[in-house]
Amino acid sequence: MNTAQNSMQDDDTGTFDMESYRAEFPILSREINGCPLVYLDSAASSQLPNTVINAVSEYQKTKHANVHRGVHTLSHLATDAYEGARDSIVDFIGAASRSEIILTSGTTESINLVAQSFARPILGSGDKIVITQLEHHSNIVPWQLVCEQTGAELHVIPINERGEVSLDDVVAALDDNVRLLAVAYVSNALGSILPIKEIVKEAHDRSIPVLVDGAQAVPHIPVDVQDLDCDFFAFSGHKMFAPTGSGVLYGKENILEKMPPYKGGGDMILEVHFEGTTYNELPYKFEAGTPNISSVIGLGESIAFLTAIGMRNVYDHENRVLDYLTSQLSTLDEMRLIGTAAKKASVQSFMLADIHPHDLGTILDHQGVAIRTGHHCAMPVMDYFAVPGTARASLALYNNENDVDRMIEALVKAREVFRS
Ligand code: C6P
User: What is the pTM of this model?
Assistant: First the structure.
């Protein structure tokens, strides 16, 4: 950790100096279309702080080599940095050991790994995988594929008009044929926070394992996988200030031990002969081929950055800004908020009058305001709300009330453009 970051350290007593954290993100001081950038698309991908950019650059300049393979010094340095990041992940999400942390390319790969390596071998006709109606496509399509491969069925727990999933509906879905429950912690399209701990308990009471899609949770709320007691937990580095191309699958060791490898290749083996192959120990059994070393090193550094701030501080700050965002949006005429759950994190979707979300996004971009528009890879959510897509503002720890004001001003201008 560098000195600048040490000097920014807060405790949990409310001395959160957001402006100094914001200053750590160089991209936030650039202009877009002649206006200072307002970045409200961190749910798609967050920006990188200097410490992460510098760590990746330093690795590329002074340590780059392949990991786990060489006796030479650079290979040792690269391996130490890469494995050091794994240790940081263990602590950050409260895993029991480094054997439980599989490094993947992101949430999507993590979920596909579980679908193919855990679910496929145990599924047959009459079995069920259960998901909810608010899932991202990455937590739908891998299950549709494995159902096609095995004859199992996909069952979907409904949401209500606020974008919530009720525990009663979860319980109602958990019958004797369910082999896995796969559920988001935070919805990327609606921002709803699901009661994951309670959901896991209900599933475990019926001996059903649970995968949690934590892509939109880990950057915003404190996560402790042992406290949640989930069996699998998936997330992506690039939504938590690391570069693209790294992600994590947490799995309980006793379950991972029994699963066959997902992909074959270098590093996931102990011995290979034409007569047969023995697989490497955990977590390497699931890490075939040369990994995205620099991105994983960046992820280790982004975890150091978040840890120094404190996830409770991040959550509280983002919650304040989200409340402000929602209340300011509500002041606009013909505003329809989509996703009004009682418990939410970091995301607000909306429709303004009859303006198509893509038009809205384009007009905001002309004013330097970046939001995401469309179906957000959650088409079933759009079907439920009977909209083609939404405009979505999503927050990270670097956003503040001024960003919200700029977006509201831009929306008012967009409204004028469409009225004239
Ligand atoms: N959601 C969004 O704009 P990958 O692409 O593997 O890093 O993450 C996939 C994914 C899985 N689950 C959830 C809940 C997600 O939000 C995402 C990514 C981005 O909302 C890009 S579509």
Answer: 0.96
